[in-house]
Amino acid sequence: MSERLKVNICGVEFKNPVIPASGTYGYGREYESLYPLSRLGGISVKGTTLNPRQGNQGPRVAETPAGMLNSVGLQNGGAKKFLEYELPNLLTKDIRVIANIAGSSVEECAELAAMINDSAVDMVELNISCPNVKHGGAAFGTDCTVAGAVTAAVRKAMPDKPLMVKLSPNVTSIIDIAKSVEAAGADALSLINTLLGMRIDIKTRRPVLKNNVGGLSGPAVFPVAVRMVWQVANAVKLPIVGMGGIATWEDAVEMMMAGASAIQVGAAIFADPYAPVKIVDGLEKYCADNNIANISEIVGTVQPW
Amino acid sequence: MYKQGRYQIIEKRAIAKGVFDITILCPEIAALAEPGQFMQVAAEGFFLRRPISICDIDRERGTLRMVFEVRGKGTDKIAELNKGQLIDIMAPLGNGFTVYEGKKAVCVGGGIGTPPMLGIAKKYGADAEVISGFRTAGIAILQEDFAAAGCKTTLCTDDGTAGVHGFVTEPLKARLETDKPDIIYACGPAPMLKGIVELAKQYGVKSEVSLEQRMACGVGACLVCVCKTVKDGESYLSHVCKDGPVFDGEEVDFT
Q: For B223, which of A31, A55, A269 is closest by C-beta distance?
């Protein structure tokens, strides 16, 4: 692996900018038989909550044109299981570990962050687009004041870990949310989480998802993600990890030109489990072919009309 | 342990209306596969792979056989593939059936739940009875294959056009009354599986059932393919792709 793909996100060095997105890659165990996890820059693990969660009833998935809806509902084994069972395994894999955390209240997020602060994770990704939160039933990430408050609480509870906040696209102005989160002490931003969507079975007149609505991901959302990353990159100073529909190395280059310092790959893994490593190889070749000494040179280089 | 790749289709036949029988040359996968496991099959132009059960495994020839029904546009696309073409599969996935050496088995298949019964029935040969049910005689499949494996076959049709007129649970009950097997394997519609598991419990026989659910990753990473299960009195949302598709019948909550 050359130096060409090394990137630095708020002080954390990644050997390459490709990171499987939270909820699409488990804790890496399911893909290790295909290739070593060390091929990838980092892993954002399955969203972790303080206590174990069963998630929503099925069906939890619906196919869409160029994508899918999911309504998993943060099913996970809780913080203790992550810290005692999954993290020790991941720490042996030569891959940066990003703990993705979520909570149903500010207090819960802070308590969880305090636990993670004392662990060996490299970075924390705070998911403020989680469903079923206390604040009026809406997501944390759709209200500037609440987004800032939860970021500040986690920042305070977790002084020693770089904090990345994952933003929801289901807002009027993602720029305003990004600015609130920046002001509240975040070190980086990741975007976008899934777009809220719905499918209906016309025979039964029932939603396909038991949860009625779910999050849209896959290539269908890619242009929305590029636009939002570009807008946010122009509005804040924080480094951005871009995601949303990335499936190829060309998509990754486009996302980085929009302003992302690194990228996450999600739903594309379901279609092709090798997608993340193919993106790494494609970026390597792209740099070689274009005399790019380090991939970071392309970040934010789009020249708008 | 599973593999993903593009492998050649070496045989393809339509064996009933909308039901296709495809044999894939994939020695590295055939060497790993066990009856009851499944594959994730890519359908060109569709985002998600389609989970399809493994019907039969031939390690000597290095082939896997899949028998599937066209259910929608994705499976229709897969059905367009022909002999000589490549098919993109991830396999073998999930947990297969437990094989009890030297024991007697009854394998029950309902409709398109019948194909995964072939691989496991072959493990038992003459020690297996295969009870399969179909809506009507025209869509009854794989009866010759079961017979060729030395299994006793009992065919049921809902409309009485072939074999026993009625559901698979009737001949199963008769068998349980006269000659209790050591294990019952089943795959098919949920109400059928429920009935079979109830009978198995009633007669004190172990059962294993193969479930289906909409899937995305197929390997246990995305957690979308949930089913309700109960273990030691506690309810769990398990995942069909990784915890199954084969479950202990008594652990499945059919409510």
A: A55
CATH 3.40.50.80 in chain B, residues? 97-210
Output the DSSP codes for B75-129.
Answer: HHHHHT--TTSEEEEEEEESB-PPP-TT--EEEEEEGGGSTHHHHHHHHHGGGEE
CA-based nearest residue to A195, from A173, A165, A177, A218: A218
Is A144 in the active site? no
- Domain B97-210 fold: Rossmann fold (3.40.50)
Are A253 and A286 spatial neighbours (Cβ–Cβ below 8 Å)? yes
Which residue out of A10, A109, A130, A144 is catalytically annotated? A130
Which segments of chain B belong to CATH 2.10.240.10? 213-255
Torsion sign (Cα): B159, B164, B170, B172: negative
Nearest residue on chain A to B72, alpha-carbon basis = A63
Q: How far apart are CA A195 and CA A221, in angstroms?
A: 8
Structure tokens belonging to residue B252? 């499945």
**What pLDDT tens digit does each residue of chain A (305 aa) get?**
579 999 999 999 999 999 999 999 999 999 999 999 999 999 999 999 999 999 999 999 999 999 999 999 999 999 999 999 999 999 999 999 999 999 988 999 999 999 999 999 999 999 998 654 444 345 688 889 999 999 999 999 999 999 999 999 999 999 999 999 999 999 999 999 999 999 999 999 999 999 999 999 999 999 999 999 999 999 999 999 999 999 999 999 999 999 999 999 999 999 999 999 999 999 999 999 999 999 999 999 999 99
Mention the CATH class of domain B213-255: mainly beta
pLDDT in tens, B183-201: 999 999 999 999 999 999 9
**Of the candidates A103, A63, A101, the residue with the CA atom closest to the CA atom of residue A217:** A63
Number of Cβ within a 10 Å radius of residue A204: 8
Q: Which amino acid is at B16?
A: A
pTM of the model: 0.95
Domains and CATH numbers, chain A: 3-51+75-192+219-298 (3.20.20.70)
Per the CB < 8 A criterion, the answer to whether B33 and B7 are in contact is no
Q: Give CATH 2.40.30.10 domain extents, chain B.
A: 3-93
B164 touches chain A (CB under 8 A): no
- In CATH, the number for domain B3-93 is 2.40.30.10
User: Is B253 near chain A, with CB under 8 Å?
Assistant: no
